[in-house]
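Why do we bother with holo predictions? Because pocket geometry can differ from the apo form. Keep that in mind while you read this record for zinc ion.
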Amino acid sequence: MNLKLINSNVNAILRGFQDMTLPIDIEKIAKARGVEIVPFPMTDGVSGMLAIQEGKATIGYNQSEGKLRSRFTIAHELGHYELHKDKSHLFVDKQFIYRSQSSGDTPDKKVMEQEANYFASAILMPTSLLRREIDKIDIDLRSEEAIDKLARIFQVSPTAMTVRISSLGLL
Ligand SMILES: [Zn+2]
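The structure, written out:
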């Protein structure tokens, strides 16, 4: 997984998007990238999908999964769009994105899923804004209180926040 490439991709998108108030408005960003967002009453454990038809991209997300999960799903699918649209025109994601990938996945597919998760995490919790908020709260980052507070500010799950903070080496 090429973290540098994903980070520069995310930074370019955020630079083009002036509104940097928190939480990051992921639907607005996706729409500004020309992607349509559609809530679906999805079944069969599907969280989200990206479909590209005749150059037109649509993200569908499972509306029954709650706001935080939906935000992460939309960001994950936008990651597939920005990073992988040359490789496939259809991505279907099952629930529990953070669960280790299902055994049937090819190595290529596993990398794409990791990349889309990393993209989602980086765009919902931009490094500079995360560092700023961490400085502001001034609570021990290893405490549940700090993680919960940051998760609320960025509107992500505490699990997603913990993964982000540790991947940035801030813990
Ligand atoms: Zn995916």
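The chain has two domains: 3-124, 126-171.
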